[in-house]
Write a structure and sequence with these properties.
Chain lengths: 339, 308
Amino acid sequence: MRLASSPLAALAMLATIFLTLSVLGKDPVAAFKVFFVEPFGSLYGIGELLLKATPLMICALGLAVGYRANVWNIGAEGQFTMGAIAGSGIGLFHGAALGAGALPLMLTAGVLGGMAWAAIPAFLRARFHTSEIFTSLMLVYIAQLFLSYLVHGPWRDPAGQNFPQSQPFPDNALLPPLFEGVRANGGLILALVLAALSWWFGSVTAAGYRMRVSGLAPAAAAYAGISPRWNIWLALMISGGAAGLAGILEVAGPIGVLQPVISPGYGFAAIIVAFVGRLHPIGIVLASLLMSALYLGGESAQIELQLPASVSGLFQGALLFFLLAAELFIHFRLRRLRA
Amino acid sequence: MNIATWVAIAASAVAAATPLIYAALGELVTERAGVLNLGVEGMMLVGAITGFAVGISTGSLLLAYVAAAAAGALMALLFGVLTLSLQTNQVATGLALTLFGVGLSAFAGRAFVGLPIARVPVLHIPLLSDLPVIGELLFHFDVLEYLGLALCAAISWLLRSTRAGLRLRAVGESPATAHELGEPVTRIRYLAVLFGGAMSGIAGAYLSTALTPMWVEGMTTGRGWIALALVVFGTWKPWRVLGGAYLFGTVTVLQLYAQGLGIRVPSEFLSMLPYAATIIVLVIICRDPRTILLNQPASLGRSFHPGH
């Protein structure tokens, strides 16, 4: 019964899409095709779906670990950006010299960059009791400004006709597509491996168990000697590292260059993915595909239905509301039976 | 640097502080009732586009602000229904409200990008506004800048010296006790949440019709979150929140005048200042957990079930 809330929310969101588009005078059936049929109609479309699902999946898997332990990292977008910057630093300046070692080193740097950025809220919460909600979010803006500084200033491509972007990555620092005709790359495989790892961490390891206990019953956790500081650090290192990895995968994958905007809000959308996936790896894999379809639908709606691409943001936000409401109706039903 | 420049800096600092004042004071009232609404950023954005759209279509700034307040309250109502009636998690629901507001305002504002709007005019007070320096410094503001001060005084008085304020605080400190005493806890919380939403709506409209008179997607750039942090920084006390807002207004505008002051730092680093300052002041306030424990409404962020 508890699992029903996510499909229920997705259905309610579909109804909202129909309703909104009808009100706007668009043919809802045509819109449905744009959002949920066309992306699956071609190999390229499916590739795009998987390509956009990858960063969402990776970020959300990391965030879910923290949310289970009541650590509210909402700054994945900033850790994504810092991961992209750290990895790009290796790719841009040492990529050609590193040969086949470039990509593994870049990905490692991406993870470390995300972790370093998440270490700030971790330290401030563990040492100074400062809410990670605010600090992680403020660091998003700082990271984006730092990226903007780099691509407008020291890292700008001198041959780039004044465009604020870095030099393109050398070929050996770019992720090759999985196969001909799609843009999806090895990042997807990595994301699925991480999903499996996250399942293993959450349900098998003692560290994962301790984190769940701290989230569900902080008092019991403290009584059992589970260190809240350790959990805060672990949660932020995992979610920050994951977001950093997603960031470098994005610039070394579909973008191929460092530019002022490298994400259409993946780090924020991943919060929705984590919740809609009910903080469970399998749920997150499915939810990231749904959210990816919404991104793609927004893009095609712009071209085919003359709707702004931001329509996807609207539906993504609505999805989370429906999920929260749906969970509650289910919760209330359980309570009535007990009484 | 001459006097005129300093006066100009002070004036723009007050303008930059004004949206923070409305949003933070609104959230302060919400939080004093024990409800944590993290959706300020989303409510501000919806208020910003509503105020802008109504202002441009009707030509009336009064209507623009009424509509913006109503739009903010409507967003807050959505939050209230979920958290107060359906008792969803306040943190998750507030985040959802922000994400939804970002999407909704971008969607609704697509037709208004790049349009110009007349700025809220500066109120000219006979004699006083004409005084040299003093007039420029103290009597050269628009009506919302003055009202922000009045709002702070009113909220401070209401919370401290009136029965309504006492009831609100009781609900925030101990909803169970308030309920036992016959207070309509949920209704009071609804009112506080709606007030917070309306103030966020006005704060957003001030951005799009006064501070930077235009509509840009995501134009709040984190101000809703800074307002939330200001409530903590001001330890839930209206006058301290007001002081904090002016401090942040000053930090925000200093970047615009930094070149004139002879500071040679890339503009991106100066733009980081308000965000970095937010982190720093939060750390200073939260460093000693007792500060938060003593000042934070005791039931902040917790759902209340009247049936129990």
